[in-house]
Amino acid sequence: MRIKRPKFNWRPFSHKQKQILTWWNENSAVKDKEGIIADGAIRSGKTVSMSFSYVMWAMETFRGQNFGMAGKTIGSFRRNVLFWLKLMLVSRGYKVKDARADNMVTVTKKGVENYFYIFGGKDERSQDLIQGITLAGMFFDEVALMPASFVNQATGRCSVDGSKFWFNCNPDGPYHWFKTEWIDKVKEKQLLHLHFTMDDNLSLSERIKERYRSMYSGVFYKRYILGLWAMAEGVIYDMFDEVQNVIQTGMLPTSFPKYYVGVDYGHTNATVFLLFGQLDNKLYLIKEYYHSGADASGEARAPSDYARDFVEFIAGFDVKKIFIDPSAKGFITELKKMGVRRIEEADNAVLPGIESVAVALKEQQLFVSALCTETIKEFFSYIWDVKASQRGDDKPIKQNDHAMDALRYVIYNLLGKPRRSKFIV
Fold first, then answer.
1. According to the model, what pLDDT value does residue 46 have?
2. Which of 8, 20, 254, 292 could form a disulfide with 87 if both were Cys (CB 3.0 to 4.6 A apart)?
């Protein structure tokens, strides 16, 4: 039985995609630019045209040279970019050899061979991984998710004559380092800048575009749908609707096949336990525990006190997993002493978690019992830190956020990372 290999189904390119594919050609008026930036909305066709054009440019301009390609992580780059890129190249007669152990892809055609190294640029330490190599070009996917130190180190490795930079991203805040240091300085740095919307992806139907438009609101709508470098300000969950997302007593399902708990533990701050029931891929917050952080005497409670309260909180429920902030080591130890199992240290990434909760609210996957009054209060008081946004950092103000943190741990770890991360952007 023959195994069918996946093929890439080519679709017509839009005007902007054609610009990406041809800007470096000999007949192009912008061929002497030092690089290109493609930013804008999700699903706008940037990555397909950018990655393919990058390799075509390399193969027609150089022979036997090293090139760099980077995503936030090597895994995300392989999933979101390289999988499709290899199919595109093979369909156009290129030979592709992927040495996964070395994270190096060798591309060959008509006697020309070049080498493409894959890097992850997730944090400040990533810059160490790219030191020492000499490159003839560098392609950054999701560059707004990378630290400036990594990008500066990578661009500094492009010392071969004729080398160029290729940047691809969805927008962030207007004070983000990439916006201020690269996009705002495209003339100074001699770069071509192309802004994309979903209309620049001819493979999307109007029905699919409307689906994406309905998924986001607030700052996420401005960034991912309109493609704007927009400020994060105001109430974070502006899409939370008491009519649509809050369920009155007696209207909740009486039982659930699966139960989960999110915990935000605080020694002097508030401690929150949230119990969720899952039914048909929907999550229902059915019970909350909220303690301000001190007893009536004003003294802080011990981890063992909260552990006893937790055991009582989950009594009678077959909880599948308990998601707890990894920093709550003492509390986790006390829970284990009391025989509590199925504890999982939560992925506590703040912005991706907030985005996952926002999508769950918009898509009617998250509902809250009217009895969970503290959680409902926090939905309306959980706001962006404007001063942090002005420094280029999106994060909430650290007030009225304990239930929001516990909720985020469950949503992000159960429903997964933001949907946009699963698509070619």
1. 95
2. 8
